[in-house]
Design brief:
Elements: H1 2-20, H2 35-39, H3 41-51, H4 57-72, H5 81-104, H6 106-132, H7 137-165, H8 170-189, H9 195-215, H10 221-239, H11 246-259, H12 261-265, H13 271-289, H14 293-315, H15 320-345
Helix pairs in contact: 1-11, 5-6, 5-7, 6-7, 7-8, 7-9, 8-9, 9-10, 10-11, 11-13, 11-14, 13-14, 14-15
């Protein structure tokens, strides 16, 4: 179950991260048109706005000229994509080489050798990541990659120290490793636009809660409840814009609330599907009432998972299960139809329908300002 939970979280993160890379923004949450959008979608939008009398032709020409000047003045990347790729390869080779060296000469190195090797890897990757900065997209990605390697090496160093020096095993050992990784990743994250560090912080924090409660003797239900609260809190903070990048943080928190309902099912089999369905309905309701499509995504996935589970558990192979499923489907389609009609009539006459913007645009990229 833990592996499945982490896999789901990683998949959700990857989708959100890939989507966020294609969205530009500027301070205040207003999208900054990219070159492609300005040539196609934005240009046609400006034409429609001029035709509708919303802006003058002179204003539209000024917007186009400004965006072209911004693209022309955009500084060239400090490093080329080739150097970025070579940096990735170098980092991977460093990690692989350290791992092979440890595997082949583990008994010969001794405890001091183990700690020294892993610590050097952690320090080297962390230092290089700090030096490359975040002045453009390439160095931003490279820093995230190198700091992720440093987080892994730091966690491994703590694990070796805990096991070899202090003879710590089982749940306390796992707690020490994941807590160290979460702390290191959190320090690298520092509530900035660093998606990979956000992911490692979140996963490490969730795993720390799981190991701590398992060490305390919990068998599943308490862990599920604690993780549900953690996910809900994380999603709420992201919704308020307190956990950047907000879109990724929200999806991680919402995904955790859905996944951890399975932990509760280990002890309360009848409660797990109902709790999962209620959680999915919570995210759907939030997306519908706030007209935010990103909030709908985890809710829809949760309904697909937990509705059949609920029907199968409580109705079995009776006629009630398909009847409830069909009724629920009709109800959802009716809600969609009402939302579509409301969206068409919710804006100004001739204007675009109202849409949600809380997660519509990412925050200012870190390379747009001073790197840290």
């Amino acid at each position: 179950m833990i592996v499945l939970a982490l896999a789901v979280i990683v998949v959700v993160f990857a989708i959100a991260y890939q989507s966020s890379r294609h969205v530009g923004a500027q301070p205040g949450g207003v999208a900054a048109p990219t070159a492609a959008r300005l040539r196609t979608g934005e240009a046609s939008s400006l034409g429609r706005w001029v035709d509708a009398g919303l802006i003058a032709q002179e204003q539209a020409d000024a917007i186009v000229a400004f965006e072209r000047a911004q693209r022309a003045a955009r500084p060239a990347p400090r490093i080329s994509p080739t150097l970025e790729a070579l940096s990735y390869v170098g980092g991977i080779l460093l990690a692989v080489g350290a791992g092979m060296l440890v595997a082949q000469f583990w008994t010969d190195l001794g405890t001091a050798g183990h700690i020294t090797l892993l610590l050097l890897t952690a320090v080297a990757t962390s230092a290089v990541g700090f030096l490359v900065g975040e002045d453009d997209a390439l160095t931003w990605r490279l820093r995230g990659f190198l700091w992720a390697l440093s987080t892994a090496a730091t966690a491994a160093t703590v694990g070796v120290v805990a096991f070899d020096v202090f003879d710590i095993t089982d749940q306390p050992l796992g707690l020490a490793i994941v807590a160290a990784g979460a702390l290191h990743a959190g320090l690298c994250w520092q509530r900035r636009e660093r998606p990979l560090q956000l992911l490692l912080t979140f996963v490490g924090l969730a795993a720390s809660v799981g190991f701590a409660l398992a060490w305390a003797g919990d068998e599943g239900a308490g862990t599920g409840a604690a993780l549900w609260l953690l996910g809900a809190t994380w999603a709420w903070r992201a919704w308020r814009g307190l956990t950047p990048p907000a879109a990724i943080a929200f999806l991680l928190g919402a995904a955790l609330t859905l996944v951890c309902c399975g932990f509760i099912g280990a002890q309360m089999e009848g409660l797990a599907p109902l709790l999962g369905l209620a959680t999915a309905a919570l995210w759907v309701g939030l997306g519908v009432t706030r007209n935010e499509s990103l909030a709908l995504a985890p809710g829809v996935v949760g309904i697909f998972v937990y509705l059949p589970w609920t029907l199968g558990y409580y109705f079995g192979e009776t006629l009630g299960a398909p009847a409830v499923a069909m009724g629920s489907g009709l109800a959802l389609l009716a809600v969609v139809a009402l939302l579509v009609r409301r969206g068409r009539g919710g804006g100004r006459p001739g204007g675009p329908p109202r849409t949600g913007h809380r997660f519509g645009h990412s925050a200012t990229p870190p390379w747009a300002g001073t790197a840290s």
